[in-house]
Amino acid sequence: MTTCAPSRARRAETAPPTPPVAPLTSATSGCCGVDMVLRSGRARRTGGVAGGAAGSAARNGRRRSPGAAGAAQLPGHGLIGARYTSAMPTGSTARPTAQRTRDALLRAAYEEFTLFGPAGARVDRIADRAGCNKQRLYAYFKSKENLFGEVMREAHRRLAEEVPLPSDREELDEYVGRVFDFHRRDQSIVRLLAWEGLTYGRAALPWAEERRAFYEVKLTALRKAIGGDDPAMLAALLIELIAIASWPFVVPQQRRLLYEEYRPEVTTVDALRDSLNTLGRASIAAVARTPAE
């Protein structure tokens, strides 16, 4: 005699009871309705289908505005100076919604790339802090590499705006000190440049032509300030001035161990700043064209 599968009603009677689903609370639910546990830089989703359904309802009732999740949630936020907030686009309500969203994504990406670099940065973390989804991010920037390129453009725009290389000789003599002060306030740009170098090495930089144009502006100002007809020598001088001013912030542990802790009452950061600015003046004087007598 052929046996049949138990009926649906009978299976329901014999099936074990379904365990109750714990409600999502503000302590456990993520912005997308599932738990987002950040461990070792990786996001782990938990909560299953029920959690996702509950999260959808929570998301519909609780949509965050762009940029609502700020840098205070990030470890090491002190690397980005206080002036960073006013330097980046603010997402003001006077701007169109699309532009506010793009600004919020760029602000979140700036911080993410500063802390973790291109390889360690996570697109979902950027979107989450900006208060939107990854699809919106890709709609604006196409890829994570393009987004990193936009961050680097923003970083160099700020640097050129706050500490332009002067074409006046007297002002040029104070250039190293001014760049030192800038990096002392905000170490994000030296970190971004270090990440960029580690990521691309000697490979082609996708935005190489833009960066060359950025440096050409500086070389033109340098040429006007000190004269000289040797492009290679001027380029070497520019590299030297940038290195003198920025290296103590690229490797702060070296600055601390080699200088600050040597004689703490004397070898202060202010003293280092003055010494490096003096070295910068000497380098400028060595390359400057001697006036005809």
TrEMBL record:
Which parts of this chain does the entry mark as a DNA-binding region?
A: 122-141
Q: Name one GO molecular function term.
A: DNA binding
Q: Which PROSITE patterns match?
A: HTH_TETR_2
The segments labelled Disordered in the record are: 1-26, 46-75
A single GO BP term for this record reads: regulation of DNA-templated transcription
The species is Glycomyces terrestris
Tell me which residues make up the HTH tetR-type domain. Answer: 99-159
Check the record and name the InterPro entries matching this protein.
Homeodomain-like_sf, HTH-type_TetR-like_transc_reg, HTH_TetR, Sco4008_C, Tet_transcr_reg_TetR-rel_C_sf
Task: Answer yes or no on keyword Protein biosynthesis.
Answer: no
Name the keywords, alphabetized.
Answer: DNA-binding
Write the protein's name. TetR/AcrR family transcriptional regulator
Q: Does the record carry DNA-binding as a key word?
A: yes
Gene3D superfamilies cross-referenced by the UniProt entry: Tetracycline Repressor, domain 2
